[in-house]
Structure formats: structure tokens, C-alpha cells
Specification:
- The protein has 17 helices and 20 strands.
- By secondary structure, the protein is α/β, with parallel strands linked by helices.
- Strands 1, 2, 3, 4, 5, 6, 17 and 18 form an eight-stranded mixed sheet that branches.
- β1, α1 and β2 form a beta-alpha-beta unit.
- α1 packs parallel to α15.
- It binds 3-acetylpyridine adenine dinucleotide.
Amino acid sequence: MSTTAKTDAEHFDAIVIGAGIAGLYQLYRLRKLGLSVLVFEDAPDVGGTWYWNCYPGARFDSESYSYAYFFSKELFEEWTWSEHFAAQSETLRYMRHVADRFDLRRHIRFNSRVEHCAWNEADKTWSVHAGGGQRVRAKYLITAVGVLSATHMPHLPGIEEFKGQAYHSSRWPQGGVNLKGKRVGVIGTGSTGVQIIQTIADEVDRLVVFQRTPTYCAPLRNAPVTAAEHEAFSSSYDALLERLRGTPGGFIHSPDERRAMEVPENERLAYYEKKWAEPGFGKWLGLYSDSLSDPAANETAAAFVRNKIRQRINDPAVAEKLIPRNQPFGAKRIPLETHYYEVYNRKNVHLVDIRSEPISRIYGRGIRTSAAEYELDVIIFATGFDAITGNLVRIDIRGTEGISLADSFKSGPHSFMGLQVAGFPNLFTISGPLGGFVFCNVPRCLEENIDWITDCIDYMRSHAREVIEPSAEAERLWNETVQEGVRQTLLSGTDSWFNGANIPGKARAIQMYVGGLVEFRRLYQEMVSKGYEGFEFR
Ligand code: N01
């Protein structure tokens, strides 16, 4: 579709921002409802996260068949995943297939970054300005801007002096980067850094890893999907969907109902070993019911994992740098790895602990720390994202009486159930702050989120309601529910993108509901059954 400048505002029923996993499905649902829909997408193609994050080694940490869309049984059955945890290129191919198979592209304007959105009370519409002078209006505005999409680039002095190549992982050049024989520095050792480091170590001449905080990583245990496995997955749509809907995070993994300390130590260790040997997140989400709430229970798992890490590294001094301390196991999303720790046994890899040897500046030829200069050809920033609210506040969104969304989140995010924000009528935030859609196998939770938004719009149309907005009181009570849930876990005490602690200056506040999808669904259904209690219609 053309992206030529428009002077007179076109009118649509709904504008969706983003053509990633969420945006494509939201478009599909609204179009089925008979609405006119326009999707704006910043990138030149569909994919969102899976378009931008084409760095070396990017792949799923959820089982491929559990991550796929479930809205079409035919789609589910006809797609063949080549690996249990698919690489980024395969996922992007899948998303392109979805866009083409359901003829979605004709509703999407690519290379169109949304810059400004404003609510007009007089005609009860949103006016939306996007790149290239595009001006449109719509009754409903729906953000599908991603949970982990707003790049976090740290402000390191001297960065502009660097004469080599520098990239953030989430803006990796689409054509790739030739790292063969180069001296490469990687800053950041979260899930992204781990995937990059383990993938490039044997290709580069020298790899210097700048680690601020060690993370508990666990083996992914990826493998090709055999023909027999594919047959089994594609014929198990109904059973699989039921299973995914019954687990706290929409993964195939769910915890053992017992409390860790109720289980005799030998049995507990045997259970940890069993989970460790399995593929995927069972070694995090499949432990005991109190593993993420009781410090003593958690420590049994943390000690087990620390020991596993230690066994894989030849140099005890390096091992000690890589082992997390004073950090619960699993209070951050666990990076799943393949031979990550063995990388540090290689002669061409050097680990710099930047807590004891801080980066003082970047200079023309590399990175200078308090102890040394590291000459580099390429610097890779695997420094993460301004998660959940980052991409929302980077758009100038103005609600009632011109109130800015960015300003209203300054002292911490607020919303009612992650679906809507008070002061922003008819704005729906897919995977919005304080929603139950993040601590999750993301597409499973998004799909439900989108179904609810679509049902709500359908309800408004059939009940002649023009405007919906949550009350400030509903937001206040919801925030209490979220905070109470977090207090029962070990999450709030651990710095991460879960609570905004990774972004300097961002309010440190939990950004999501952590009570699990099953409970969140129950609360949501109860709210709907009480006539959308907490929302106000006009
Ligand atoms: O980001 P992160 P990520 N100086 O925030 C360091 C998903 N994901 O992109 O821990 C030096 O986790 C920072 O250090 P510290 C997944 O949900 C999924 O890796 O703040 N270092 C940390 O080491 C994941 O949780 C997959 O002390 C700095 C790193 O950068 C989420 O994305 C793959 C720094 C950032 O880690 C985010 O992962 C990849 C600074 N100024 C990602 N600032 C799958 O497998 C930050 N760091 C599907």
C-alpha cells in the first residue's frame, strides 16, 4: 500500500500501531468484525520483534509449536517448524506467511512511524499523525507496539568517537554483519547477549564480553523437529491449546503443586536434574509451587544451578565471575543457552566484570575500562529495552484535555488490567502496563488480550456505546491487586526490565500483573460478567 503523504484526514473505524505478532492478529480480528482498519508499521515489513531482532543467534525460548498462532487450526496444522526452538529467520518467514495467507498486507502502511495521536472529544475520535505527513482519524486506537521493542542504548561517554562499527542488537542490519576475523566487544549478558556471544565466539578473532551482572542461564536443548514429532504436534491442536490455557504463563510448563521443602532433598535434587535434562523452560517454570515466592525454596534451585554453571567452566576465577550471587533464581526471565558457558573456556574470549573494572569511556579504537584498553573493530550493545511502556511513551499520545501519556506514566505506569489507561478514551493497549500478558509465552497471552479488546469493541457497537474509559478508582484498585501479587513473589526485589530498574531515571515499579494467566482470565471474565465493571461508557 502506498505511503504517500495525505493532507485530508482519512477516516477508519480503528487504527492499529504495529504489525508484529499482536498487530497482525488484531487486524485479522477487527476485519472479521467488519471494521475498517488501518495498521501503521515503522518497519518495511511485518514481524515486529522478529523483524528487528535479526542479530546472530536470535531464536525462541518457547517451544515453536506453542508460540505459533492458534486462531486458525488450518494455519497451525499446515506450518512445519524445523526446530523445537525456531531461529528468528524462520519465525519471520512464518509471520510473512500469515500476512500473505490471510491477505493482511493491504491494510498495512509500512515505513510509517506513528508520531502523534490526539483524542478529539468533540467528535470522539483519535487523530493520528504518521511519517510522510499521513493524517488519519479513527474511533478506536489500538497499540500493538511490543513489550520489548524500545531499544535501550546506554549513554557511555565517547561513543561518538568510536571509529569501528557499533550496533544495538535490536537494530541489527537486515543484511547481517561480517564478524569473521574481527575483534568484537559485547556489552550486556541478558538473553540477547547470551545468544549473540555463544553464536559468534568461534567466528570472531577476539571476543571481549563486558558483563555487569551475571545471570542464571540454563540449557535450551534445541533439536530439529522430526517428521513423527511434526505429525504429533499438528494433530494435537485441541489438546495443546487446552494445556497452554491451563498453565500460569501459557507455556507447556507448569509447576509441581508441592512446596519445595515438603519434598525430601534427594527427591528434590532428582527432580531438578530431570528438569535440567529437558528442553525449554521446565527448569524455571516447572519447579515447585513456591520456587518464586519462598526464599528458602528458591535457594535450593539457585544452589543447584550455580553448581551446574561452575562445572562447565575450566578457570575457577572466571566461573566465579559468571555465577550470580544474592540473586534469586528465576526472578528475571532465564536466558536459555547452547554451550554458552563453554565459550569462556576458549582462548579468544575474555570476560570483563565491569563492576570491578568499570567502563570509563569508549574511545576511537575501542573501550577503555578502569584497568585496560580493549581495541575493537565492532561493539555490540545487547543492553536490552525500555520494556512495556517504552514504545508507548516514545509516541506523543494525548488524551482528554491534551494530557500526555508519557507524563502520566512518569511516576510509574498505571492502567486498568493493562487494557486501558484513565484519561485516554477508546485507546486500547495490547500488552499494556500492569496487564497479565507479559510474564508469559507472549503470543498465548496476546491472543487472549486481543480477543478481549475485540469483544469489547463488538459489545460497544451492539450496545450503542461510543466511548469507553476506565475510572481512576478502578485503576487504583487494580494497582493494589498487582502490587499485592508482586509482594508475594521474589520479583520486586530483583532489578530487571520487569520493574523498570534497567532504565536510568525510569520509575522503579513493577510493570505487569504476575498472578498468572489463569487467574487473570478469571478476573477479566468476572469484570465482563458485571457489565465491564470498572469501565465507564458514554
Ligand atoms: O535485555 P536485558 P535482553 N552498561 O535487559 C546490560 C527477551 N528475549 O535484550 O543486568 C553495561 O535482559 C544489563 O546488565 P544488568 C527476554 O524476555 C528473549 O538481553 O542491568 N551493561 C544486561 O546484562 C529477555 O528477558 C529471547 O546489570 C548494561 C543486559 O545489558 C528480554 O528480551 C532472546 C548497561 C540487558 O539484558 C530482554 O533481554 C532475547 C550499561 N549501561 C531476548 N545497560 C528469546 O530467547 C544494560 N546493560 C526469545
